[in-house]
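For reproducibility, we list the full input for the iron/sulfur cluster complex.
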Amino acid sequence: MAVLEARKELYKTLNAMAPEALFQWALEEHGDRAAIITSFQDTGCVMIDMMRRVAPGMRVVTVDTLRLHPETYELIDQIEARYDLKVERFFPDEKKRQEMIARHGEYLFFDSKAKQEYCCHVRKTEPNQRALETVDVWFTGLRRDQSAYRSDTPKVSLVDRRGRKILKVSPLAEWDEAQMKAYIEQYDVPMNPLYDQGYTSIGCIICSTPTLPHEDKRDGRWRWFNALDDDKKECGIHINGSGI
Ligand code: SF4
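The corresponding predicted structure, in tokenized form, follows.
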């Protein structure tokens, strides 16, 4: 009971903290067990810039699906040079990737939702699980305005990963486009040039496409499934979170 009360108190404190204070708290309290895990979209780049200003030294981790856009790979190089950091890359298990391609082909994600999820599992979710094994505090770039499915994203929550609790922190969950734009301009944060080509959510090549003004930010993901009622536009990495 006392543990639960203490946990609730911590949850309240963390939820009230500004993003900068969350980075400082995580680095001080958890050191190398805290990390930004990012796919280098706008929020991820802002988080890295903020972290380097207020809590330099925090780890930056990414999952390289081996199917990213050339522009994303160039952005990662640019960020490493600008912030003088080494991004830790987690890759798909090579044996599982080869087996999947041999059985279903490189473009299996067009065939069915199940095969898209299989591909996302091999290329994203499983390497992400391995990355998560190295952290107790997981900083993500989720924002409530990214899609209807993400509209109630908590700033801080406790998630269960293989029986272990991880504190999942989305420091910019409450930010909107105007706040993002202002920060990016003020600190001249490097951005993926694909945003200038109409992309509003950037993942793997082919599976992410530009969006139209009336669409949700993630509507360009797996566009060929847009007619499905239950399509959450999620790859599995951010599903199954829970409150503290
Ligand atoms: S986004 Fe597409 S290519 Fe990337 S892991 Fe998922 S299905 Fe595979």
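Residues 145 and 177 are 8 Å apart (CA to CA). DSSP finds seven helices and six strands in the chain. Both points were considered when choosing residues for closer inspection.
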